[in-house]
Amino acid sequence: MHGRGMDALNTFSQMEQEHELLPDSVTFVAILSACAHSGLVEEGLSIFESMIEKYRLKPDLRHYGCIVDLLGRAGMVERAYNIVENMPMEPNLAILGSLLNGCRLHNNLELGKAVLRKIESLKEERRHAVLLSNIYANENEWSKVIRVREDMRERMQGKPPGRSWIQIKDVVHEFVARNETDALPMELHMVLEGLEKISRF
User: What are the b/e assignments for 72-90, b being 16+ CB within 10 Å?
Assistant: First the structure.
């Protein structure tokens, strides 16, 4: 996570040379994650293959998640999507969210919509719908941004609002998150987000 992917690879190589220290499934999660955060695509793919072929370890969701993250960060989102489609198990929200984030980073709108449909089938799509709306925003498709956000708001109707409490001098104060108290309409939020995006350039 700190960009020291080559150091992680060197340590892994030393471990491979020590026959008494065989890498296990947790080791491969660590090294694949290091490759993902350092952009070491070919190295990560090679290690993933050696995990299966050389060490006879069966990849689980964590390993597939690392590979999807690796490819997504590198802009190889179509290849990542193919891996998700051919996994021997159903992808979880973390893997699909990582893939959707890759689509957002590299402005792949069509694939992002396909990934969101998979997320919607899990019925846990709220935070990832925001990613899709950001993809639309990058394409300046503001009407679609509004539609995604409004659809997300409708899905949240009937759910209890988030609450938090704080005690000050023996008095408990409660804070409740309610969308209806927001004085700014959705359209104004979209304009503000667009201005924020422009200010980054």
Answer: bbbebbebbbebbeeeeee
